[in-house]
Please model this.
Amino acid sequence: MSEQAIKAQLLDEQAMRRALVRLAHEITERNKGISNIVLVGIRTRGVPLAERLASFIEQIEGTAVPVGALDITFYRDDLSHISEQPEVKQTEFPCSIVDKDVVLVDDVLYTGRTARAALDALIDLGRPACIQLAVMVDRGHRELPIRADYVGKNVPTSKKEIIAVKVKEIDGEDSISIIEGIEERIIHFK
Model:
């Protein structure tokens, strides 16, 4: 993305770190510890965010939290619109999610369709005790009755804007920006 397309930088590396530390504390407090928690990152950027949350939770609690990676490609309701040959990535879990408190982790909550697809994918893998949702950014514009339990930052946006979340593990930097002027039809399925 060119620098001219950036309307505003919302979070830099330090602000993202602070938001993730806060989310780690909120997850630990709400669940009265971590004994039954499994973090599940929604591919692509949800996975490194889940891994970072797990690291912060381990620093807080002194115990590791299992982290899984969930590919929702075949659960999307827009599969025919995105590509004739969608790129499927692996779903990986270090343990069973049956009777676990699963915390889904994603970068942006927008329409709610990604979260709905992730719920369908999780249920196919087993029946968790509960499912919670943690996102770095909630930008509004929901099309489904879905809300996040943990939010790094709430950002009101127009439908013509896009929230660009970058993580070091994938993009080489940590930042969250608003990008202006991108056609609505190519906004990522969130």
The first strand starts at residue 6 and ends at 11. Residues 74 and 109 are 19 Å apart (CA to CA). DSSP finds five helices and eight strands in the chain.
